[in-house]
Amino acid sequence: MLSEDGVEKRHGPPGVNSRSLSAVHSAADLEVLREIEHVYFSAPSEFDAGRYVLEHAPVPPTCETIEQMFIKLKRQQQVVSGKALHLISQQRDNCDKQFAEIQTIRENLSSTLKTCQEARNHLRTASNHLTISTFVILANFRKRQIIKSVLKSLELLRSLRSVENDVAELLTRKEYYDAINLILKSRKAAANHKEYTCIADLAARLQDTLDMTEEKLDSVLSQICYNFDESIFRKLRKAYNLLGKTQAAMEQLHMHYSSAVNEASIKAVKNNLDTAIDAKFQELCQAVPARKAPACLLNLCENLFLIMKSYYLLVEWHNKFDIDDDKASSKVLDIERNVSREYIRQKLKAGLLRIWSDVQAKVSTFLKSIGVEDYPFEKFIQMLGVLRRLTQVAEVFCGDKSDLLQDFIQTQSVLYIKNYHRGRMEELKLFLENEGWEQCPVKSTFNLLNLQEFKQFKKYLTVLRSDTTVINSKHSDGTSSAHSQDESVYIMKYFTQKTSHTPFEIFRNENLTNDDIFGVETEVVSEESDDEPDELRRDYVDENERHESCENQSPAKIKNSVIVTNTTLSVLRNCGQYLQICRYLPQISLEVVMLMNQLFDYYFYTVHLFFACDLEVASTTLYTIKLTAVLKRMSNSIAALDSGYSERSFPSPESPVHLDMASEANLHGLSERIVAVESVIFLAKQYEMLQPYIESIVEPHQRLILEHFRDNTLQIVPDLRMPVYMCSASKSLDARTALIAMSQVKWDVKNVAVEHSPYVDMIIRKIQVFALRLENISAKVSLNLEVLQSVWAMVSKFIVHLLVEGFSNATKCSNGGRGLMQLDYRQLFVKLEKISGLKPIPYQEYVDRYVKAYYLPRKGLEEFVCERTEYSNKHLLALVTCACENKRDRQALIALVEGRDGTA
Amino acid sequence: MSETYEYLFKFLVIGSAGTGKSSLLNNFIGNKFKEDRCHTIGVEFGSKIVNIGGKSTKLQIWDTAGQERFRSVTRSYYRGAAGALLVYDVTSRDSFNALANWLRDARTLASPNIVILLVGNKKDLEESREVTFTEASQFAQENELMFLETSAKTGENVEEAFLKCSKTILAKIETGELDPERIGSGIQYGTGTSKRLSAPKKPVRTPSDCACRV
Fold first, then answer.
1. Cβ A351 vs Cβ A258: under 8 Å
2. Do A436 and B72 touch (CB under 8 A)?
3. What interface predicted TM-score (ipTM) does this complex get?
4. Which of A179, A229, B83, B171 has the fewest C-beta atoms lying within 10 Å of its C-beta?
């Protein structure tokens, strides 16, 4: 373009307006323009026009050509200049316009620049201002943040300061877990804020709080011993878990249980002391006044039971809930937990036995200290009941059969029974010494079942008599296994948390019967009382019977007279008591029964002592072998009067001074003798009645002892009649005068007399008097036929002996004399038969045989002498002397008699 | 029971049937009162050691049946009694009227010196009272008896009755009016007797084991 501009400028005349020219020249101009070589339009830096023209100057350089060329070039230059001028003028407005525009733009630009500069300046100031405030803001913000955190810390600190109170409150609300949690969190928080100086102090306080809280937990834990509360324990356990001290807590808890046993025992004993003292348990026990001991034992057992119950519930709880408590945990933890849990379980299991043995030890110590044997029966039974209940509790508690306590109970029971028995024996002695041996007016159908003491045994005894075996099995089954099962269920009820009752409560009941205590069935009573209410209420005594029977009925008609004394009844009552004891102490049944038998022995012995001691005739034929044996046995166990008490023997009763045993008018106390002997016989019958029952309550291998007692003591009691009744018979018939009268009879008469001798009448008179007096006695005492017969039997026994004695006094005797003898005693027996009602007269063959031996040939006499040991040597010698006329024979026989004596 | 006592007194409880003799005794020796008791058969027995004026004394008490038909049985126990409670029932005129007979029996059969305390039992049954306190006191005065009204049910005056009677016996021993050594006095020296009261005729028994456990 530049080049074009240059061309144009050369063409147009400088400063001439080319417009008019252009139109004229335009066509030619265009032609010229077209002829211009292109090369001229090149930029002057690359093209040198002068040179180019020179180079292209026409050859040969003529002026013409040069002129021509000049013109041409001139022309071209004119055209180009014109043209350029034209173009320039043509563009001038545009240029001006443009220039103006440029000018405006220039102005705009400068104003813009100015604005920009201003803006910049403004911005600069603004930016300066902004930066500073931002920093302030940030700083403030940070400060705020810091203050906030400080505030938080302070709040925390404040809360930490109030932790003690909060914990205390939580503890009172029994939120142990939360309390521990709070403390632990607080501790952690405190540890995070060590930078505060107060924290050290606070941390110490927190530690104190923790310690105190743990102590509190411990004390709550110790309370668990007295009353296991599942909810509390659960909380406690959670808390300990949090503390990581579950196992330690269990150890601690066991220690608490141990000390709880101790404390509860001491508390129970202390409550029953008259004056408060501080001493060891054993000393405390010894200080318990006797009257309070049963209540104290009850207290003790109750207190101990609560602890056992608590422990039992604890174990139960562990068995039940511990397993599903925390299932979601890692395996490693699980194993660890399991080990710990297993440890605790073992610990708990062992704890049961340990606590029970602690309890046993306490109770044993108590019992040993107070000396159980000195208590009245009721109290003893009650205490025994408490102990029995305790053993039942133990069985539920730890399955222990409590051998220790059982043994203790057994030995104490034996001790007690022996002591109790001693009391009864002393009482019996007293009764016997004061006994008037009057017949106690009871119904003729009376037996021990009418006594209240036997009410409970009525069922057993009445049925037993008819069918022993059935009851035996029923009895033993009924009480042992089935019963104990019921009992354990019963005891079990008290081992639940809900009840605040103890199985010992029943002992507080005033109207408690022993049956209640021992859980022995009592249905018997109600059943029987419906049956025979009258009999029991009227106390087995018949108002009128006695008088009627004695006055209207002759003695011989009385069949079922019951002769008992006051003492008999008292012995029977004691038997009832003893059997009751057996019911409660089945394990020592045999001992008790043996002691019961001793009562009988003592009674038996005393009757013999009192009423046969004045026997004046030879006793050999009056005492059966068994009777002698039994009396010997008894006297061994009954000490001489002054030797006092010992373990096995009892003092013999003192002979009564108030009994008149010498008066002939009352047949030398025959009435008392009869009452005494018959009462022993009655007593023996009652004992026999008890035998099947007793056999059912002792061990099978012990029955032999009972059988022995029955066969060798009870059944031989009627044998006592002989020596005792003989006393009266012998005294009343006055042997001396009779013998004197007999000695006056001449036995060497030739003819057989027709009249009996006068001594017979004399004896008969005596017998008649005896009969009359006996009649008097039967007004007082209801004598039955058996009694009468045995009395008369003794009379006749005495008479036959008297006769033999009298006959043997005859040194000389003829056939006629022998006949008279027969006549005499026949006459006597006929009369005796009439008076006594005995038929035939017993023992008559004693005299009969003796008298008739007179007629025996020598050989027969020899046999008689050898075999008849019931006759004394004196009798036989007299017989031989009278019967043997041959001197040599006589001497041989005498030698035989005397030889018999030697060998005997 | 191992027991030590200085004296042993034989006591009787006599009176008509149903006057509550056994209940009195049972109350005294510490048994429960039973509303519906059976009649006593023959004689029952109870003993208790009491402390009278610092002396432990054993009372050996024979509780006799009141019913007429037991008279012959009970009589033999009268012998040698040192004291007696003669019991009537304040609600039964008959039992009061029978007192003279009982008294005669006691004085003749037991001992003329027997110390007798008249006991009007069942004083709790005030509404059915038939015998006034005054007339009973008068009877007691006339017959030189001590007198108390008791209730075996409530226990009122029961112990007092026995103690009062025992105190009188003891006082009589101390004044020499009663001689424990005499046979049939109803008084015996016990195991713990030191025999300070009368000149010892028997060798003094050593007081055995004086640590009283009761």
1. no
2. yes
3. 0.75
4. B171
